[in-house]
Design a protein that fits this description.
The chain is α/β, with parallel strands linked by helices. The protein has helices spanning about 1-30, 40-45, 70-80, 105-115, 155-160, 170-185, 225-230, 240-250, and strands at about 55-60, 90-95, 100-105, 120, 125-130, 135, 145, 150-155. It is globular and about 40 Å long.
């Protein structure tokens, strides 16, 4: 009887180990799909504890390459706020996307995952990803969107439509500001993964600045910006944005929902 009970116990133990192994494997397999929320890699950008350099992967549809001024502005602003002693560079690739019409947030996530060269956390390199597809967002008032911790899309067709007849602002200026605005969301601005001690979030547009001189102002990513701005668009973070990032980097301000911590 004891031998039978022992055999049953061992069989049950082996079955349990098999189940645990399957669950463990499932967790490991699922981890790369845990893309996080916009702002989920804020600390990874602000710190050089692990990630000493940064690559902005830019995938664009044929004929939709970003302006050189957009790429330069993006790198300059990130260099000003992120701690990357080994530098920040852009890797630009012409890409045939599966989606060409109206894009949903899930379309952006799927295409970003399919065309990403390497994972966002790649050894000592942090990689963020910007898509410039043809077509527009399924909400046609949106010029750009941040969909998770490392991926954004900027819709050039919608930007061209948002340019007013006087070209003030111009499509190039709009692209510059919209792209930086969406990457600002990857930095967690405004209040996406923290609560600022400064009162600069627009109550009617959560996650955005109330200051129209900040690139994080809500209208920057909206097709109505041509009616709101008749001249130069904001293309920089304001003092409150930068103070938030400084406090997050120093640890004086707690960051939530982080995929990495120093």
């Amino acid at each position: 009887m004891q031998r039978v009970m022992l055999a049953l116990f061992l069989a049950s133990l082996m079955l349990l180990q098999g189940c645990l192994g399957g669950i463990r494997d499932g967790i490991v397999d699922a981890l790369p799909e845990q893309r996080g929320v916009p702002g989920g890699l804020t600390l990874a950008c602000l710190s050089s504890a692990q990630f000493t350099d940064m690559v902005i992967e830019i995938d664009h549809a044929p004929g939709y390459a970003p302006e050189a001024t957009t790429v330069d502005l993006l790198i300059d602003r990130l260099e000003e706020v992120c701690d990357k002693p080994d530098g920040i560079r852009a890797d630009i690739t012409e890409t045939e996307f599966a989606s060409t019409g109206d894009w949903s947030a899930d379309d952006v996530r799927a295409q970003a995952l399919e065309h990403r060269e390497s994972p966002p956390m790649d050894g000592t390199t942090l990689r963020w990803h910007v898509l410039f597809p043809s077509g527009g967002y399924d909400d046609d008032s949106v010029l750009g969107v941040a969909v998770n911790a490392a991926d954004v899309a900027v819709f050039r067709d919608s930007i061209d439509d948002a340019e007013n007849v006087l070209r003030r602002p111009s499509a190039e200026d709009i692209e510059n500001s919209v792209t930086l605005h969406e990457v600002g969301h990857l930095l967690g601005l405004v209040n996406l993964v923290y609560t600022s001690p400064r009162d600069h979030e627009d109550a009617d547009h959560p996650g955005h600045s109330s200051n129209e001189d900040s690139v994080m102002y809500w209208a920057v990513e909206s097709s109505s910006l041509g009616a709101i701005f008749s001249g130069q668009l904001p293309n920089d973070f304001d003092d409150d944005d930068r103070a938030d990032l400084s406090d997050l980097a120093s640890g004086d301000l707690d960051a939530e929902q982080q995929l990495w911590r120093p």
